[in-house]
Specification:
It is a single chain. By secondary structure, this protein is mainly β. The protein is globular and about 40 Å long.
Length: 111
């Protein structure tokens, strides 16, 4: 299993970022996928999940209405569109499959 996140960076409060996760080594089209994040000094926090066919999505209350999870099964890629970012959402964002997660991508929200 390999999960490679990208798309993080520095953004001002209120800004947007789109994260991507390239998956390989397993049947991505059959996999329930998630995004989780870890802020400095804190534990892992679940952000969002999507079913294998994209038919159902779930979000943490704190990101509902601002974040959108999506997937392209033809490209074995998971996405997270993040809008109206807040400073407290600065974290390392990971995509997750079962017990696996990638190396993460750093999101910094600062003016």
């Amino acid at each position: 299993v390999q999960l490679v996140e990208s798309g993080g960076g520095l953004v001002q409060p209120g800004g947007s970022l789109r994260l991507s996760c390239a998956a390989s080594g397993f049947s991505f089209r059959s996999a329930h996928m998630s995004w989780v994040r870890q802020a400095p000094g804190k534990g892992l926090e679940w952000v969002s999940s999507i079913r294998s066919d994209g038919s159902n999505t779930d979000y943490a209350d704190s990101v509902k209405g601002r974040f959108t999870i999506a997937r392209d099964n033809a490209k074995n890629t998971l996405y997270l569109q993040m809008n109206s970012l807040k400073s407290e959402e600065a974290a390392v964002y990971y995509c997750k499959f079962s017990t696996y997660r990638g190396q993460g991508t750093q999101v910094t929200v600062s003016s």
